Amino acid sequence: MKQKFLLLAFIAAVPFISNAQIGGVFNKVKNKVNQRVDNKIDKAIDETLDKAEGKETGDNSSTGGEATPAKEEPTVTSFSKYDFIAGEQVVYYDNFEQDAIAELPTGWNTNGTGEVVTLDNFPGKWLRLHQPFNYLTSNEKQLGENFTVEFDVIMQLKNNGWMYPTFSIGIFGTNGEPATGNDFLKGFKKYAAIISTLYPGEYKSSKIKLESYNDNKSYFNSDAKPIEALEKYYNKPAHIAIQVQKERYRIWVNETKAFDVPKGVALGYKMNQLLFQVGNTNYKDDQYAMYISNIKIAQGLPDTRHKLVEEGKFSTTAILFDVNEATIRPESGGVLKEIAGVLTQYKDIKVNIIGHTDSDGSDATNLALSKKRAAAVKDALVNDFTIDASRIETDGKGETVPAGDNKTKEGKAQNRRVEFIKQ
Q: pTM (2 decimals)?
C-alpha cells in the first residue's frame, strides 16, 4: 500500500511527463522504491546479526569503544576499470586556444556551421557543432598503424520528448588527396573509414554502434550496443578515447570500453583525418548543444614496462590535470594503474617522478606547478595503489626541459608530461 502511495505521489509531483513516457518512468520509480525497501530490510538484518554476534553498532564514542578510523579517500577519482593509455608522440592537438570566438577553427572545414565558444562552467574554449553537419579537423599528418585519439565532448541535452541527435566520430584515409577537401565532407567512406556513433537516450536506452568501410563498401558492421553510462554525463564533459592497433579498434566512453574489435579497421590505406558528425533532430538550436575540445592524436604503442624496467625512463602525456592545477583527471587512471603494476611486480625499483609544463605562464609559476603535479602523482600511487612512499621521489622542471616546440599546439601538448626515472 505504501509503495503504491509513493508511486502516485511521484507522478502527481512531476506533471510534465508525457503519456508516452509514463510507463518507463512508472517502472523506474517502482524499481527505486523496491530498492530502498530492500536496503532498509538489509540494514535491519545486519544490525540484528551484529547484536547476536556481540558486535558494537552505532557511534562507538557513546560506549567508550575505540572509534573506527575513517577510510582514506582516494587521491584521484579515477576510472577504476579504465585501461586506455595514450600513444607516446603527440602528432595533433587542438583546444582552440588560438582561435577567435564565434568563428570556425582555423584550418577546419564543414558543410554547415560551427563556432568556437567559451562556457560558464567549464574552462578553455570549445567548438560548438550543429545538426545535421559534418566537421573535418585541420590535421594533415598520417597517423600510422598504431595511434590513439582522445577528446572531450559535452552533450547539452534536456528531454522534450523528441529523439536526441546522434553524435559520431570517424577516422578515415584520403589516399593522398587533401585531408580537408570538400569531397570528404560527404565522401569520407571513399577509401577506408571507421565510424563510431553514439545514440543518446533516456532511462538507460543509450547505445553505440560501430561500422567501417573499405573502398566505399561495408567492411565491419556491429549491432547497436547499450551504453547506459553515457547518460550520467549529459551537460558535463565526457571523455572519448580510441586506440587503433593495425586492424584492432577499441573505444572507451569515459570508463566504459564500448568496443574491442580485433579486425574492425580495413588495411591498405593510411588514416589521416578525423570526422565529427551531428545527426538530424527535431530539437531547435536553443534546445540542445554539442561541444568538443581537447582533441589529441598520438602515435605509437606505449610500453611502460620495457621503458621503465629496461631503459630506465618512461615519459607520458597520458596523465592529465585540470587547467593550471595539480588535480589529476579521472581518465589518467589507465596509465597510473599500468605504472603501479610495474612497481608492484618489480619491488626493488625506485623512481623519481618529474613534472614538466609548457611555456605558457611565468617561469616561477610553471616550476611550482610541475613540482605539485609530480607530488600529486606520487600521492596517487601511494594512496590509491599502495606503493611504498619510500620508493618514490619527486621533482619538477617547469618549462626548462621541453620535449617539443612550444610555438606549436602539438609541441606544447608534448611538453605537458610526467617522467618516471628509475633510480
A: 0.79
